[in-house]
Design goal:
Elements lengths: L6 H30 L14 H9 L6 E5 L3 H7 L3 H8 L23 E5 L6 H14 L5 E6 L6 H12 L4 E7 L2 E2 L2 E2 L19 E6 L3 H18 L3 E6 L17 H8 L3 H11 L4 H24 L5 H9 L6
The chain binds thiamine diphosphate.
Length: about 325
């Protein structure tokens, strides 16, 4: 959103971003509950604490632009427009889920909203992002691809292959490294000789940026600059967004590798609390705020009910997806 936007529009915009972040947080909290109750099987990697990255970044994109990410994909999918119903139903293994209940937590796909999926192999999707961007450049369709990954992916071969080709072929792609300080239980200082991940861009002659993600508007502005470079000049950027996950790596991680004090320190920079405080400071009344938060609550309650009551996939789905090729995309 431009700096000269009228104040009321700017307030509405911030309220919409806050709403999206709150929706992600509440869906994630309900996912954690569903997992504890045995309604969700397999892995579950929550996005709590990182909401401003996906929401700010997606605000800088158009609806036709592409997004691709890792297994920590719930927040990115919701930020790109996937309905909470489709996401929770997928987590619950139901046929109404975005991947007909066959993919689960790590495989959120949404063709309509150009969400190209979550991927379980660390860094494996980064060359795919360059492939999508290559297709856009070849077709001249003006679309930008945004590729999210954790700092743990930066030492993987796929990162260097994907980023190197994007720089060489001048592709319309933005690489967003969500540096949340830990790869499972390994801090960055034990896996990389550099503390500044964005420096990796220099080896490929690529533009770079690096900032904290506690202010969703700042995320939108900074990613927006990179998106513009990609769209207007076919110039890729590596953006390191510094963030922190408030929960363990996955639901089975007690996170003993970090102290409670460290966690509490990071919670002081909670992007949701910051956006909420900014809304109040800029004049959003208590009544409007309560209405907004109530509507999120209603949406999440409805989505949990929908996911709970939906049927599991039957044999027909298995046959359709196994023998008749991919869904009709
Ligand atoms: C190629 C590969 N190696 C190892 C794993 C096991 N693994 C799953 S998540 C993970 C940590 C990745 O951390 P990071 O990229 O920083 O993302 P974050 O979980 O912090 O979002 C690892 C090593 C994997 N999935 N793929």
């Amino acid at each position: 959103m431009l700096a000269e936007t009228p104040p009321s529009e700017a307030l509405d915009h911030l309220a919409a971003l806050y709403r999206r972040m709150l929706l992600i947080r509440r869906v994630e909290e309900e996912s954690a509950r569903g997992y504890a109750e045995g309604k969700i099987g397999g892995f579950l990697h929550l996005y709590i604490g990182q909401e401003a990255v996906a929401v700010g970044a997606m605000a800088a994109l158009g609806p036709d632009d592409y997004v691709i990410t890792t297994y920590r994909d719930h927040g990115v999918a919701l930020a790109k427009g996937m309905p909470a119903r489709a996401l929770l139903a997928e987590l619950f293994g139901k046929v109404t889920g975005c991947s007909k209940g066959l993919g689960g937590s790590m495989h959120m796909f949404d063709h309509e909203h150009h969400m190209l999926g979550g991927y379980g192999i660390v860094g494996g999707h980064i060359p795919l992002a360059s492939g999508f961007a290559f297709a856009s450049k070849y077709r001249g369709d003006g679309k930008v691809t945004l590729c999210f990954f954790g700092e743990g992916a930066v030492s993987i071969g796929g990162f260097h292959e994907g980023v190197g080709l994007a720089a060489l072929w001048k592709l319309p792609v933005v690489f967003v490294c969500e540096n949340n300080e830990y790869s499972m239980g390994t801090p960055l200082s034990r896996s990389m000789s550099l503390e500044d991940v964005s420096l990796k861009a220099l080896g490929y002659g690529m533009d770079r940026d690096r900032f904290f993600a506690d202010d969703v508007l700042e995320v939108e502005r900074r990613i927006g600059e990179a998106v513009r470079r990609a769209r207007e000049q076919n110039s890729p950027t590596l953006v390191e967004v510094r963030t922190y996950r408030f929960r363990g790596h996955s639901m089975s991680d007690p996170a003993k590798y970090r102290t409670q004090a460290e966690l509490e320190e990071h919670k002081k920079r909670d992007p949701l609390a910051r956006a909420r405080a900014l809304l109040v400071e800029r004049g959003l009344g208590e009544g409007s705020l309560a209405e907004l938060e109530g509507s999120v609550e209603a949406e999440v309650t409805d989505a949990v009910k929908f996911a709970t009551e939906s049927p599991e996939p039957g044999l027909d789905v298995l046959e359709e997806t196994t023998y008749k090729g991919p869904f009709a995309y």
